[in-house]
Amino acid sequence: MRSTNKKFISALACASAMTALAIVDPMGVTKTHQVAQAATDNVPARSAGVDVSSWQSTNLNQQAKSGAQFAVVKVSEGTNYQNPNAQGQIQSAEQNNMMTMGYHYTHFGSDSNRAVQEGNYAVNSAQQAGLPQGSYLATDWEQDVNNNTNGSVAANTNAITSFMDTVHDGGYNPMLYSNEWLLKNKVDTNKISEKYPNALWVAKYKTNGREDNPDFNYFPSMDNVAIWQYTQNWRGQNVDGNVNVVPLSNKTNTNNNTSNNAANTNNSNANNGQSSSQAPARPNTNKPAQPTNKPSQPSQKPSTNTNVNSDWTKQNGVFVTGGAINLRTGASTNSKVIAELPANSEVKYDAYRTIGQYTWLRQPRANNEYGYLVGRNNGQAWGTFKEGSATASKPAETKPANKPAKPTNKPSTNTNVNSDWTKQNGVFVTGGAINLRTGASTNSKVIAELPD
């Protein structure tokens, strides 16, 4: 998941209470905002939901009409970015009688001190965007250039818990979002779930294509899951699709003991939008309903790419790699590698998009699928763009020294190359998938399959 407000008060929204909230923004300026209680503050299990960011419109009418009953809105990232569409998206969700939640895209990795700073920033951002007190506010913790997940499991877990504690103390319900692999290998989810039961939001996809409804044969086999993100293209709308597997409720309680693990959702009194020591209600501790005859999980997990959506600039072009570059299944360094393209590979692409420091190129492939590779890093080209390409007017530059890691096994030496070669520089565009080999022989080792 990644990194215009029209205010229309419907009859249902008019019935919601509006309360003044004093907020101190990151610059130290006190402002007064109006925080509305969500038109819907609970949804039953197996409800459909979407998560949105600045890549999506502030109008969620289409998602609501398609059956979405809740919306998780990105409110902030790091300590210096707020989603400019957050307030409009929250208002639109409320007007469409959707339960609203929020998420913060983290940069703290395994740093607990920074996690507290980001937690405070997320709470302030959620308040300024009008996210009702007691709503779920998740930390989006995934591998990114700004978020290193390679710390120890203990350090990662402590940092995540510090963020969740800060969110909890700020009057919101904490939740943790990540993909299945990271949660199973880089985080002690048992420790987190002891303090915050049923607070996991897990991404696991059956396919990178369109999915209209969840296939529970692919449900991640984990305890304490509250929400499952099962697609990046829900019902063809290029928005992430989710399903909650336990009932969800945006409510607060009067229990001031933040270490209390018991679920307490009986007190539905709002705290008038004030950040206080009142702890939000814990999610109930019932485990998700599992399929009774659930088949075994696939041996190869589909890649989880939460960053790909409809905000791509269409443009046909040719990119010539300046060094070895990974071709991936999604526009994320966390996505599965299809092949390592060697230097001077020509790649035809039909669209590009900048996400953070990277400009990604999209390569059409067979069966209506795509491959993705980085074309620029902080504006620096990792190769050359031929005339008519997305950035052909910019000077071609070679890729920086931090190239993708080479295979651990060195390719075999080519014994076929000798002096009987005719020297000629030229460009060859593949007319179909062709193997690049270590030698001029079909018996030589394959370096990569160059796509069409």
UniProtKB/TrEMBL annotation:
Gene3D superfamilies: Glycosidases (3.20.20.80), SH3 Domains (2.30.30.40). Residues 1-22 form the signal peptide. Residues 315-378 form the SH3b domain. It comes from Lactobacillus johnsonii. This is Lysozyme. Residues 241-314, 386-423 are annotated as: Disordered. Residues 273-314 have a biased composition (Polar residues). CDD domains: GH25_Cpl1-like (cd06415). The lineage of its organism: Bacteria, Bacillati, Bacillota, Bacilli, Lactobacillales. PANTHER family: LYSOZYME.
